[in-house]
Amino acid sequence: MISESAAGAVSAAPAAASARRRAKRRATWRRRGVVLLFLSPWIVGFSVFFGYPLVMSAYLSFTTYDLLSSPQWVGLGNYRYLFKDDPEIWTAVKNTLWLVAVLVPLQVLFAFGVATMLARAKTGVGFFRTVFYLPALVPPVAATLGFVYILNPATGPVNTILDKLGIEGPLWFNDPGWSKPSLTLLGIWGIGNTMVIFLAAILDVPRHLAESAELDGAGPFRRMRWVTLPTISPVILFSVVIGVIAAMQYFTQAYVAAAVAAGQASQAGSVSTLELGYPEGSTMFYPILLYYNGFRFFQMGYASAMAMLMLGVAFLLTLLIVGQSRRWVHYQGAAR
Amino acid sequence: MSATAAAPGVRRKPPPAVRRRRFLVAVADHSLLIAAAALFLVPVVFIVLTSLMTTKQALSPRLWPEPFAWGNFVDVFETAPLWRWAFNSFLYASLGTLGLLVSSIPVAYAFSRLRWRGRDAVFLIVLVALMLPPQVTVVPLYVMWAKLDLVGSLWPLIVPNWFGDAFAIFLLRQFFLTIPQEYIDAARVDGCGEFRILVTVVLRLAKPAIAAVALFSILYTWNDFFLPLLYLSDNPDNWVASIGLSQFRSLHQVQWNLVMAATLLVMLPVIILFFLAQKAFVQGVTLTGVKG
Amino acid sequence: MRRVTTAVVLSAAAVLALVLAGVASSSKPSAKAPAGGTKASATTLTVWVGWSARELKEFKKVVAEYDKKNSDVDIKVVGSINDDKIVASLRAGQTADVISSFTSQNVGVFCKRGAWADLKPYLDKDNVDLNQFPASTRQYTEYKGYRCALPLLADVYGFYYNKKLLAAAGLKGPPKTFAQLAQYAKKLTKRKANGSLDVVGYVPTFGFYQNTAGAYQPLVGAKYFDGSGKSALGKDANWQKLLKWQKGLIDWYGHGKLVKWQAGAGDEFSASHAFERGKLAMMMDGEWRVAFIAAEHPELQYATAPMPVMGAGTYGSGYINGTIIGIPERGKNRDEAWKLVKYLTTNDHALATFSNGIRNVPSTRTSARSKELKPDKNFAVFTKIFTHPKSATIPITPLGAAHLDTFQSFLAKWQSGKVSDLAGGLNKVDEQIDAKMKRAGGGPP
């Protein structure tokens, strides 16, 4: 009896089960459709503005292309020139790496330092925060023009004041040894964003940790070393990664500063040839050289080869930093 | 933090030596802050002072304008088409930001509140796009726009924003993740389709994040130099403010006072926006870093 | 729900308005009239030139005369166009009808299919005699037989000196050799109490105002390329003579002090130009400076002469360059454009008027003798240099002036004292230029 009804039940089940399965599949497909619909802008954007150019760039890097005629295949010619003959490329690489090694750490350090001071301040925090954040809102072109003007070695206010104090001011943007430090000053002036992030993170450090450390007799520096820094380490990692990405793309400030400092009137002056990376190549950064090669000299194929190299280095650097970070970054609570 | 043996309700004043030390430490802290703030303000002060000088004075080592040439701010409009530049920047910023929001919100929603296979792996790809320097893709994109005969117009700048932006997607996703599941479940139970949920539930709750993303996008597009340089150089009618400023310099043979005045004017809209939306700005900046 | 709909409708309307505004204002500078429009509605020709401010006004005057005489064309002149914009527009495909450039070296870039149109068919059809243009001007308006441009007034480089300052230092007449030039420069230099430079006799650094290697080349008789088309900067001893002279003078001033003075020297095309203000006693500049001084500092007591020479240079010669004018192949109204170009480059009245206006040297033999030219003794020096047989221009290469950039980068290091082996350094520059040429597909014709 039981076996009969059981058998009946069993035989009825597959029909209902398959109907349920079909309904489930339809629901899954509908859900996938919705997901695809929502993702569609990004899918199109990714293919058109990221995937396609990447593939095209790789292809163009093996050609000579000036946009007037069709690309001509030259195989590894561009890469050979890149690694062996180009007189400017290694200057560009060195300068960009200088930014990564000097500008980024200084920016992170200053942002952290200012944030720490702000965190401990009692009065006027809002005012100070505004003062430090405002320069980050200034358009990079405007900020650069301002800095080049005030750091003019002959007529700028900074050197004028230094002169009154009896110090011979350096040639700032006109001296190959001082041009990158001048750009660094400009970069530090604009750390508002990073500073506010650090401030929020420092204020976010759980009080009980700091308090128990203090009770255990730890002074301010040891508290910073063992409580604050580890707690905000994810933020430090974030700032470093963002900083490195920005350093690799560094273009506007160097471009404007070199042009203005070199005093080139871009009209008239028939024979004046542009001085790349004024002064003496010290402001020739990789993205600028890429721009010149591709859009001034119209060697689009060569510019693409440069772009491929840049991609490789960017990828490696990011891997390096993120891989390294495992040793010193602590995420609060469970892993995300 | 006070001594452990205090009577309840009564705060014993710390001994004078401790108080003095604490005061000195406070002053030291603040003085460093004051010094740093002063240094940060120095460039702004000089820019403002220069913008009020006469042309001759701006070229000399004089530090204080006399007389105060307030007229510079009017002269700037006569010597350079600032209104035109501002209008172009405004077009780029508004259309770009609008497109960014419209396209990135659904994508961020899909990455955070919809479940599907491979979601996290694909999100990693979104992040990779973030790390890519724009110069890597710039050459073929330029060729594409040139073939479409659109170089010289604002479209190559605006259109990519209508197809999602990695940074916005990242930010919005992080925020959407913090929305309690109950709200969404409740809406689903009510029979809402995903789109309805997005518009009625998520958008309303995510206003601060959206505001922050919008502000960042406006700031970025208003200050953008590289892309306009690439696509707009040969068409002065379409110059945005950033290009105009850099070319203003060479067009008018370094009338630095006017250049500084123009600089201040170009900075003005963004600074006004900041003051109006201070909270959103700071909140947004915090969202990026702390949750990221 | 209704609130949402109204919100959606309003925002959609706002977006639509913005987009329309964007489309409307995204104008492109190409001409509007249909191709080949000779009669019917007025054809609008867009002309791009590099001139700005006062010089642009003079050009517009000349063009206005043509415009009045030809009612079927309407000419729109856009000034301040530099070479980057020109090259960018050619690649981007939308461009003007007529383009004029200051950088004659870029002929190597412009004269090819797809860039500037071949003018030979037009020249043949209208029987234009090319011999009316002096040989040097013909040289920098074509590349490898492809003639894509005509000269529109020429630029000649000579020597300017401040008569008052020279007299005060007890110096008579302009120096004729580089050795004399250095002597004069040292005598005329005045320093401030703290040792920095106040008045400079002569600035020897490349990259300042019109000081470029190219401008000095005819003065020392040095060659850029040897017979086989390879770069000869290291092989021709005259370059080293020039560079050693230059470095000697720079060291006498102090390189850092010179750079500092240069930073405050005043922009080249403004009224605060160092020579015009009396802060620079002697300089090399183009013939256009005569007009600038007349307009900005008429009280300046100065005179002109050919530049001093050394090595294999001949006194009385100089560097020649010029504005070139051509028709982009992708322009829409090439026939009308050609008519305008022919007028501007061969009509004596137009050339003389323009020459008077901006004080550039007339570029045809007949216009150089025109009675309409206003005489000026300072300007006359330049016309003499222009016709000197040893005056020369930069050889044209497919890289335009890009090979000079490599040289200029080397010179920047040389000037600041970072190069110890001059001959070796120049040889290396030769290698780099040869490699660049190879990559671009060929050297000078």
Describe the fold and architecture.
- Chain A contains 15 helices and two strands.
- Chain A has helices at 2-60, 77-85, 89-120, 125-133, 140-150, 157-164, 179-189, 192-203, 207-215, 220-231, 233-248, 252-261, 277-281, 286-296, 300-325; strands spanning 63-64, 72-73.
- Chain A has a two-stranded antiparallel ribbon with strand order 1-2.
- The longest helix of chain A has 59 residues, at 2-60.
- Chain A is mainly α and 336 residues long.
- Chain B is flat, with a radius of gyration of 26 Å.
- Chain B has 15 helices and no strands.
- Chain B is mainly α and 292 residues long.
- Chain B is 73% helix and 0% strand.
- Residues 1-6 of chain B have low confidence and may be disordered.
- In chain B, helix 3 crosses helix 14 (256-276), helix 8 (166-176) packs antiparallel against helix 11 and helix 9 (181-189) runs antiparallel to helix 10.
- Chain C has helices spanning 2-25, 53-69, 83-92, 107-110, 120-125, 135-139, 163-168, 178-188, 213-220, 237-253, 255-263, 289-296, 334-346, 348-358, 365-368, 377-387, 402-415, 422-440, and strands spanning 43-48, 73-78, 98-101, 142-143, 146-147, 149-162, 190-191, 197-199, 282-286, 302-305, 320-326.
- In chain C, strands 1, 2, 3, 6, 9, 10 and 11 form a seven-stranded mixed beta sheet that branches. In chain C, strands 4-5 form a two-stranded antiparallel ribbon. Chain C has a two-stranded antiparallel sheet with strand order 7-8.
- In chain C, a hairpin with a 5-residue loop joins strand 7 (190-191) and strand 8.
- Helices cover 44% and strands 12% of the residues of chain C.
- Chain C has 445 residues and is an alpha+beta fold.
- Chains A and B meet through helix 1, helix 3, helix 4, helix 5 and helix 6 of A and helix 1, helix 4, helix 5, helix 6 and helix 10 of B.
> In which order are the strands of the major sheet of chain A placed?
1-2
Poorly predicted ranges of chain A: 264-273
Instruction: Encode the helix/strand succession of chain A as letters.
Output: HEEHHHHHHHHHHHHHH
- Average predicted local confidence, pLDDT of chain A: 81
* Number of contiguous helices of chain A: 15
How does the helix and strand content of chain A classify structurally? mainly alpha
SSE string of chain C, helices as H and strands as E: HEHEHEHHHEEEHHEEHHHEHEEHHHHHH
Protein traits:
heterotrimer, A: 336 residues, mainly alpha, MetI-like fold, B: mainly alpha, 15 helices, 73% helix
